[in-house]
Amino acid sequence: MKILANKRIKALFSRILMCILVFAVVAAVFMNVTAQNTAVSIYLSSLCMAVAILIFCYAYFKEQHVIIETAAEQITDYIAGDPDARIQCDEEGELYRLFQEVNSLVSILNAHAENELRAKEFLKNTIADISHQLKTPLAALNVYNGILQGEAGNSQTIQKFTGLSEQELERIETLVQNLLKIAKLDAGTIVIEKAEENVSEMMGGIERHFAFRAMQEEKKMVLSGDEDISLMCDRNWLIEAIGNIVKNAFDHTQKGNEIDIEWKQFASVIQVIIKDDGSGIHPEDLHHIFKRFYRSRFSKDAQGVGLGLPLAKAVIEAHNGTIEVDSELGIGTAFTINFLIPTKL
């Protein structure tokens, strides 16, 4: 580095000496020509010196401009996603010292990004492993619970607690399944296979899925939308996502409440709205409901585990869609999903 710096200093002095030499030659010529006029001689000498200085300054600042532009291009490449982009700083000086610090910062940022990626990969693999390991004992517990129910006879106590046990086992199984799905989405191992699907048919399937629960809880489901609207999507995954939002609506409504599913088509988007007139979401929670395992301190729901809505959001975004929520306490909640219609060129 010092050798390169010395070369740079020598080159700089060479330019200065060249300018002085040119000035001296030109000044000597003019002095000989104008030997009898001292004032003119001094004026021309000064003019020559000024021109020489201007030429030197122009060359110097032009070189500095090229150096800074090159550095800016490297920084732009890094911001654009090239982790190997670095600024050349093989020489000495304040400017190159700054470049060295920028390169050090880039290395630190890369190290942090790699550590974060490894931590995320570890968490994802851990969740997937635990979920897979839980599936076998869960299946065995379901079998044991079924045997107990069959042997209960007329014992109301055994029937009651085996029924409660079955509910809890179903909750754990749903949790495990959701964990597996989220882990697969994070890993990118799930391929979203899109096809032209009728939105009305998909919403009808969701209505049939919740029909028994709606009857049990004495709640009403209302569907409305154009029967001819179609959407490029993965039918199973999208039904899973919207079904989770509908389930959330059931969890936060009371007897006699209504859950509406409406779909519309605009010029550039297809919109699906899931709306209820239930308890609503506290304003403090609105920005957190899509976080995994988030539990509101205001919620009275003891059943949810905080995975349904994050899973729904992940699936919708995998379809290049967006989801928004609007809610008012005691009035109800509305989830609005927008899917961009691909432009046909």
Automatic annotation (TrEMBL):
Record-level GO BP terms: cellular response to phosphate starvation
InterPro entries per UniProt: BphY/WalK/GraS-like, HATPase_C_sf, HATPase_dom, His_kinase_dom, HisK_dim/P_dom, HisK_dim/P_sf, Sig_transdc_His_kin-like_C
Keyword field: Kinase, Membrane, Phosphoprotein, Transferase, Transmembrane, Transmembrane helix, Two-component regulatory system
Recorded catalytic activity of this chain's protein: ATP + protein L-histidine = ADP + protein N-phospho-L-histidine
Entry-linked CDD domains: HATPase, HisKA
Segments forming domain Histidine kinase: 129-343
UniProt key word Transferase: yes
Signal peptide: none
Cross-referenced SUPFAM superfamilies: ATPase domain of HSP90 chaperone/DNA topoisomerase II/histidine kinase, Homodimeric domain of signal transducing histidine kinase
Spans traversing the lipid bilayer: 12-34, 40-61
Subcellular locations according to the entry: Membrane
Molecular functions per Gene Ontology: phosphoprotein phosphatase activity; phosphorelay sensor kinase activity
The enzyme's E.C. designation: 2.7.13.3
Keyword Transmembrane helix: yes
Coiled coil residues, start to end: none
Class of this enzyme: transferase
Main location: membrane
GO cellular component term, pick one: plasma membrane
Protein name: histidine kinase
